[in-house]
């Protein structure tokens, strides 16, 4: 039976996009406490089902598919630009397909304005009217208002007209940055992207016996299974080592490992890979916020996903991407060179500490690849920043392997500028076989 939290999420799923949602309404409809309703609504906001806007309230929005993640709803636009709604509240759940800046003649502007777009413009009332008639929403910059007739038209068309105190250039920059951030998020793989769902995973119940483990093992050839109770909560894990030389009639709850490591659907692939390496885990149960089993993820699933990611183009470029792109191999074997780009610096124009550290990790990782040791997962990192490094400086990076085992490595990385040492680090890491 679904929990109250799950019932609320299912209820929100069933609402039409644009529906207003409140704690009191949910509590009354589903006969739950205000606290339970509030927590479920916040969870729905995290899942992208609703959006909360100041002076408007919480509304149901269209949940974006990952393939279409870079599209923003008008409700999200309001939060990004600290805007207020002048009209067309019922259209806040809609997504914009593109935005344009109204800095041209009216006829030319309308040639680019189409349904589903957002026109960013100042106090040009005629432009507001024509954009709404063309099926586009309007964002009025500079803190200006618009005429009452335009607000009524927005209500009729269910197209938002929004006002913000920021100027046009700032607004365009803010929206561009929000889209760019979502492009980067789009590339992040979560456990939910690779997990085997509940109806396709194998498990045992606490009241099952060791004999049931043997039966399931013969059917599936798997050796590790999550153990659940009547509410489908994960209460343990049982593996071949747990049932070795045990009587077939002993209950699973007597031999299982209690309080196992679990992950949630929004746990990142990088985190679960790291956990599996350090804990030596082959299978991890996937649970929801109520600790109810929703699936499993295996080491093979994680390694397959990591290999797939390496073959994919990165749409949104991160600092790590810039470092990897700019770092080149010098004439000397296993020595690298890079130039300090503007994106790598802090507000003082010197190489930021975080980027300094990332350069060292990238160099160590390349050394491991060259020696066919596998993927580097950093366990401990000690860094010494000896001299500040300014923008456009040429750096030489020299990684040295100090120790290496089957699953462990210790690497020292030195960074030079004009043959002077500017920083060094000691990296202790575990290795994942490629």
TrEMBL record:
Keyword entries, A-Z = CBS domain, DNA-binding, Transcription, Transcription regulation
Q: Sorted alphabetically, which SUPFAM superfamilies does this protein's record hold?
A: CBS-domain pair, HprK N-terminal domain-like, Thioesterase/thiol ester dehydrase-isomerase, Winged helix' DNA-binding domain
Domain named CBS: residues? 256-314
Q: Does the keyword Glycosyltransferase apply?
A: no
User: Which InterPro entries does the entry mention?
Assistant: CBS_dom, CBS_dom_sf, Diverse_CBS-Domain, DRTGG, HotDog_dom_sf, Ser_kin/Pase_Hpr-like_N_sf, Thioestr_dom, Tscrpt_reg_HTH_GntR
Top-rank taxon of the source lineage equals: Bacteria
Classification via Pfam families: 4HBT, CBS, DRTGG, GntR
- The UniProt record lists the keyword DNA-binding: yes
- PANTHER family associated with the record: CBS DOMAIN-CONTAINING PROTEIN, CBS DOMAIN-CONTAINING PROTEIN CBSX3, MITOCHONDRIAL
Q: What is this protein called?
A: DRTGG domain-containing protein
Q: Which organism is it from?
A: Aciduricibacillus chroicocephali
């Amino acid at each position: 039976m679904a929990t109250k939290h799950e019932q609320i999420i299912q209820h929100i799923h069933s609402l039409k996009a644009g529906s207003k949602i409140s704690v009191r309404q949910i509590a009354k409809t589903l006969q739950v406490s205000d606290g339970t309703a509030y927590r479920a609504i916040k969870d729905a906001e995290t899942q992208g089902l609703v959006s909360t806007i100041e002076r408007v309230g919480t509304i149901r929005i269209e949940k974006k598919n990952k393939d279409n993640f870079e599209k923003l709803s008008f409700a999200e636009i309001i939060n990004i630009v600290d805007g207020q709604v002048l009209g067309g509240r019922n259209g806040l759940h809609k997504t914009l397909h593109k935005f344009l800046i109204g800095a041209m003649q009216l006829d030319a502007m309308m040639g680019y304005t189409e349904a589903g777009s957002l026109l960013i413009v100042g106090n040009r009332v005629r432009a507001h009217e024509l954009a709404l008639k063309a099926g586009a929403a309007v964002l009025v910059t500079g803190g200006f208002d618009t005429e009452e007739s335009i607000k009524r038209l927005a209500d009729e068309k269910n197209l938002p007209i929004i006002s913000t105190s920021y100027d046009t250039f700032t607004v365009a920059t803010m929206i561009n940055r929000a889209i760019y951030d979502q492009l980067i998020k789009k590339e992040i793989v979560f456990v939910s992207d690779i997990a085997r769902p509940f109806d396709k995973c194998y498990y045992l119940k606490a009241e099952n016996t060791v004999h049931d483990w043997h039966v399931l093992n013969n059917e599936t050839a798997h050796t590790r299974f999550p153990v659940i109770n009547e509410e489908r909560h994960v209460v343990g894990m049982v593996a071949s080592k747990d049932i070795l030389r045990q009587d077939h009639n002993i209950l699973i709850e007597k031999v299982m490992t209690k309080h196992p490591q679990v992950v949630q659907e929004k746990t990142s692939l990088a985190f679960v890979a790291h956990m599996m390496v350090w804990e030596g885990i082959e299978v991890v149960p996937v649970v929801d916020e109520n600790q109810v089993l929703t699936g499993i993820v295996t080491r093979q699933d994680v390694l397959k996903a990591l290999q797939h990611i390496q073959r994919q183009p990165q749409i949104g470029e991160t600092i790590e991407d810039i470092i990897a792109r700019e770092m080149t191999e010098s004439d000397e074997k296993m020595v690298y060179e890079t130039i300090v780009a503007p994106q790598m610096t802090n507000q003082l124009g010197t190489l930021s500490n975080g980027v300094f550290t990332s350069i060292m990790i990238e160099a160590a990782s390349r050394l491991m690849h060259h020696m066919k040791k596998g993927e580097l997962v950093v366990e401990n990192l000690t860094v010494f920043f000896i001299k500040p490094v300014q923008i456009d400086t040429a750096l030489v990076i020299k990684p040295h392997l100090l120790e290496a085992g089957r699953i462990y490595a210790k690497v020292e990385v030195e960074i030079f500028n004009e043959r002077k040492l500017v920083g060094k680090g000691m990296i202790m890491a575990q290795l994942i076989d490629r």
